[in-house]
């Protein structure tokens, strides 16, 4: 048997961490002295301790580690935990790579070695009827809005197909704050036919005419659309305008539902002179 100090040293963890693993039921001592409360660990428990240490170093969560030890097939459960963590890391690397590209581009813009390829335009937007579905995101930002888009547009596709409605591009998304909360209403739609028809699973929405909108073209996938929105807002403020209504994204070129480098999206926001 090992004392808690010896066991901690062999496992390259702290005594405090061993006590925490005991408290959450992940690794309980083989014996606890009733009188002194001293913990002792067996030689057979080294395997579990070293496995926990390895998985923690790889960033696997404690809940996932616990799942490895409660099954009859530890190798299979270990594979699931590792494959899940691999997917998380691959996603994180892809996200960080996209952020690096945005930072480098932002620096080039600041240094004057690159300029915006598109300019902000001000024009009227004519009214349009759309077939739409709506969801509520818990907040602003791509981390909140992004996960909602796929299910919303998939549901809209299915509803229109069931109702025998034609999918007419361009798709139009618009966003509105929810009064009294940090939530954001996310509206996903397709342009309706010349004579819109109501149906189950979608709504017919008449988007009103906008007398003056600031517009800017975004080219590529959605990884850099935040920069384009920032450029649009910076310019309209510099030009003496203020925003007066919900912003829209009009997908002028967007084959399929997975954003691609050749996508073309027009950002629109109603404005008026300050």
Write the layout of secondary structure elements.
Elements: E1 2-3, H1 4-11, H2 15-23, E2 31-32, E3 39-41, H3 46-57, H4 62-69, H5 74-111, E4 121-125, E5 128-137, H6 142-163, E6 168-177, E7 184-191, E8 203-207, E9 210-219, H7 225-238, E10 241-243, E11 248-253, E12 264-273
Antiparallel strand pairs: 1-3, 2-3, 4-9, 5-7, 5-8, 6-7, 6-11, 9-12, 10-12, 11-12
Helix pairs in contact: 4-5
Could you characterize the architecture of this molecule?
The protein is α+β, with helices and mostly antiparallel strands. The protein folds into 2 domains: 2-57, Multidrug-efflux Transporter Regulator, Chain: A, Domain 2 (Orthogonal Bundle); 121-273, Regulatory factor, effector binding domain (Multidrug-efflux Transporter 1 Regulator Bmrr, Chain A). The protein has helices spanning 4-11, 15-23, 46-57, 62-69, 74-111, 142-163, 225-238, and strands at 2-3, 31-32, 39-41, 121-125, 128-137, 168-177, 184-191, 203-207, 210-219, 241-243, 248-253, 264-273. Strands 4, 5, 6, 7, 8, 9, 10, 11 and 12 form a 9-stranded antiparallel sheet that branches. Strands 1-3-2 form a 3-stranded antiparallel sheet, with helices on one face. A hairpin with a 6-residue loop joins β6 (168-177) and β7 (184-191). The longest helix has 38 residues, at 74-111. The protein is elongated. The model has no long low-confidence stretch (mean pLDDT 90).
